[in-house]
Amino acid sequence: MEATRPSADFSHFLGVFRRHWWLVLLLTVVGVAAGVALTRVMPKVYEASTLVLVLPVEQDANSQNGRTKGAVNLDNEAQLVVSGAVATRAGALMRSPVSPVELARDVSVEVPPNTTVLTIRFSADNARDAQTGSHAFAEAYLLNRDETARAVLDEQVKSLNLKVRQQNASLNLINTKLSRSPSGSSERSNLESLRSNSQNQLNDLTGRLNALTTATINAGSVISDAREPESPVSPNAMLNLAGGAMIGLLLGLVCAFLRERFDRRLRTAVDVRDRGRIPVLAALDERTTPTFDDVLQPYGPGGRIFNRLRNEILASLTAGDQIIVVTGASRGSATTLVAANLATSLARTGSDVVLIGAHLPDSVMDAAPLARMLGVSTSPGLSELLAGRVVLKDVLQRTPRIPSLRVITTGGAATAAGLMQSQRLRDTLDALRRQAAYVVIEAPSTSSSADAQSLASLADAAILAVELRRSKRPALLDAAEQLRRVGTRLLGAVVLPQLSKMPRSIAEENLPAVTLGAQQAPELPAVDSDRTQKLPTVAGARAPRQIEGAGEVTTVIKAEKATAGAGRKEQPTDEKK
């Protein structure tokens, strides 16, 4: 199981992206548009650079552990370029009214590795000012460096001149004493030695002074002057567009996952399994989903899925388990489609199967097309049976194409509310246990009626029909909890894609009779079971319609007489008391 987890997670991420690709695309486009707007709003910045070769002068001294190992510490020189003295001189050269502090903010200096070169860059809002500023700062730096070197040299010359004057005065004093001392005396010998030493020092000072006064200062030079830039360095359109697209993409992915995280709707079978914590017995797609007109063929893609579902259910049932209730996590016809196809698949094995339609429609237009799918009459059905108007044999209809499948439709009156908990229903299910191998109950959804819980309490196992994009995670969890509370074993879920609404023509053909008033509707006559099984629904027949007037609600049944080729006469019926 652990080996399949990474691929499952990756497929989940791809599913999130596939379901919310429009949100990701929208935010990506918004990010690109923001990049375009930012490019247009940002001021243009031009940058020019000048390369300056820095030559060592006498006062230069590199730090012992400096980053640059030459005679000149270029890190120090880079700081000197943006100093106030250089900025002031550069501003004078540029004739700019901007303060030296603001000019220094537009300068950046780089030191290429293993070189004695400074790259002086200057930024401005136009190309001409950028070129002028870079050249001006380079010139100002070299002038400042030259002046500093000359000032140091002048100080050395001044100091040497002072020493020369002092040495000359000392030598003159020695010569005066020497002229007064007698020849051959020890004092004269000492004075001559002092005069010789003084003369040597004077000659050394004079030589050093001559070297300083004739020395030339070369603090550096411009090896590549600034050129007028052809295009601005900022804003960078490609960078802004790429950055906007990347930010939009990331925001889109984050919003997609947040939307997926807080979206309570179930979108895939993986959501049912992981978020609903319910095993998935079968998952149908748009290609294999049944329609409202017929059940799936046994050897088609959808039929094979229900055949596998049948085998899994039979393997899960224990001895004595016969009744299976199919309910839904949301309103709709998903329960009808699953129950009809499951019962058909069970009956194709030769087992005697009874399908009970206990899913009372939420409205007339949402009537489940169980009778149309299996080719049986809409009434009498479960409503009449529980109301005591007919007996069990009168409502059991054998399907034309599958003889081992018998159907009890919902019936012609939707007044069975509260009868799902009646003793008559328990007796009916007990009788069906003795007559059939399996009983499949098409129950309403757990979110629309408490009848699903009542029917599940009488069943041996339950299956949830989950319609994607309509069912929600809280409703799915609540459905499982309701089944657990009544002690019914939940086998798993059958997942269907979102079903389209039933065509209006199909719905009108399957309209049930509805009685909503307090006055009890007249009871229907008992229908002979043999004739019910042999005769399909009369072509063109319409279900009873509700007519309301004068405070009363009555049931009117309109049916066309099918006499052509039928050879039947309308039989009189007596109303049951």
Automatic annotation (TrEMBL):
* Biased composition, class Basic and acidic residues, residue ranges: 567-577
Q: Which regions are flagged for Low complexity bias?
A: 178-198
Annotated signal sequence is none
What keyword terms does UniProt attach to this protein? ATP-binding, Cell membrane, Membrane, Nucleotide-binding, Transmembrane, Transmembrane helix
Indicate how the chain sits in the lipid bilayer: Multi-pass membrane protein
Report residue spans for region: Disordered: 176-198, 537-577
Q: Where is it predominantly found?
A: membrane
Task: Tell me which residues make up the Polysaccharide chain length determinant N-terminal domain.
Answer: 9-63
Instruction: Fetch the InterPro entries from UniProt.
Output: Bact_polysacc_biosynth/exp, LPS_length_determ_N, P-loop_NTPase, Wzc-like_C
Per the UniProt record, which residue ranges are transmembrane? 21-42
Presence of the UniProt keyword Membrane in the record = yes
Task: Give the domain of life.
Answer: Bacteria
Q: Which family does it belong to?
A: Belongs to the CpsC/CapA family.
PANTHER family xref list: CAPSULAR EXOPOLYSACCHARIDE FAMILY, TYROSINE-PROTEIN KINASE
Record's protein name:
Polysaccharide chain length determinant N-terminal domain-containing protein
Q: Which organism is it from?
A: Winogradskya humida
